[in-house]
Amino acid sequence: MPFVEILAVAVALAMDAFAVAIASGAALRIVTNRQTFRLAWHFGLFQAAMPIIGWFGGFLVRDYFLRFGHWIAFALLLYIGGHMLWEGLHHDEDDVCQDPTLGSRLIMLSVATSIDALAVGFTLAMLGLSIWFPAAIIGVVALLFTAAGMHLGKFLGCQTRLGYYAEVLGGLVLMGIGGKILWQGL
């Protein structure tokens, strides 16, 4: 597979992570290097690992994940997005939003934004192509897009009123991404 095609796939896969990172940065408004590293590292790691898992899983679990992977991603994103939406609509001005770069929220976001990379691994396995170089490129691109998204979100949250509505917007974005994944999978 030519490098340009791998890069195009990597950019397409990183768009979900980029959107979530923008919403996370806007919600946090003060984004530390540590938070940026945590979110970017996890998103990049999961984006790189999912195609490898899909490649190794190949034909063993191919039908199950191709049939239900979009439902899993939809359910995770709907849950997280719904929770963010609810918290954004039901909080006091003194409340501090939960840090999406910590704990189970970070893991669920990492899985949810990288589930579509599983299909790329299946596809590469069916084409008989190596997975290692594409997985590395996919991971690095996701890492870079996530880091950029965090800081773009921070800028938007500080410079506009987006920061006040970031949790609501972030929840709607996650639910929208989940709906898109479900729609594409049906």
From TrEMBL:
Task: Name the residues that span the membrane.
Answer: 6-28, 40-62, 68-86, 106-125, 131-150, 162-183
Its keywords, alphabetically, are: Cell inner membrane, Cell membrane, Ion transport, Manganese, Membrane, Transmembrane, Transmembrane helix, Transport
InterPro entries xref list: Mntp/YtaF, Put_MntP
What is a single cellular component term in the Gene Ontology annotation?
plasma membrane
Give any GO molecular function from the UniProt entry: manganese ion transmembrane transporter activity
Subcellular localization, per the record? Answer: Cell inner membrane
Q: How does it sit in the membrane?
A: Multi-pass membrane protein
- Is the keyword Transmembrane helix assigned to this protein? yes
The organism's superkingdom is given as Bacteria
Query: Is Membrane one of the keywords UniProt gives this record?
Result: yes
- Reported function: Probably functions as a manganese efflux pump.
Note the PANTHER family from the entry: MANGANESE EFFLUX PUMP MNTP-RELATED
Q: Which family does it belong to?
A: Belongs to the MntP (TC 9.B.29) family.
Tell me what this protein is called. Putative manganese efflux pump MntP
According to its UniProt entry, this protein's organism is Desulfomicrobium baculatum (strain DSM 4028 / VKM B-1378 / X) (Desulfovibrio baculatus)
